[in-house]
Design a protein that fits this description.
- This protein is mainly α.
- The C terminus is likely disordered.
- Helix content is 55%, strand content 0%.
- The longest helix has 28 residues.
- Helix 1 packs across helix 2 and helix 2 packs antiparallel against helix 3.
- It has a domain of 54 residues.
- It has 3 helices and no strands.
- The chain is elongated and about 55 Å long.
Length: 106
């Protein structure tokens, strides 16, 4: 038993509910491939635009949640500043992912 008590603040509540285990936001990747094929062929529909909008919104929310988590984690007290290091690495990876060139759709 430690001669002192360490008290940590409660983490801030997340605005979005946690997804169910294994759940993915938006349509499955195969659906997105079909949407992209229709767009490339010039035969896309309003439903295709809605599918893309829903998927992109979900991905933006995930990215925002990951950045908020990294910002929060950067201020955690941890041995050897490990939490801040992980937070920095997560932010760097998110930044790098945002700068990727779009994949060429075959």
């Amino acid at each position: 038993m430690l001669p002192f008590r360490l008290s940590l603040p409660e983490p801030a509540p997340h605005t979005a509910p946690a997804p169910e285990a294994g759940a993915r936001p938006g349509p499955a990747p195969a659906d997105l491939d079909a949407v992209l094929d229709r767009i490339a062929a010039g035969t896309s529909t309003t439903a295709d635009a809605d599918t893309l909008r829903t998927t992109l919104t979900a991905l933006q929310r995930q990215s925002d949640a990951a950045r908020a988590f990294a910002d929060e984690m950067a201020h955690y007290c941890s041995p050897h500043n490990l939490a801040a290091t992980y937070a920095q690495r997560l932010t760097e990876r998110l930044d790098a992912a945002g700068n990727l060139q779009p994949a060429h759709h075959a």
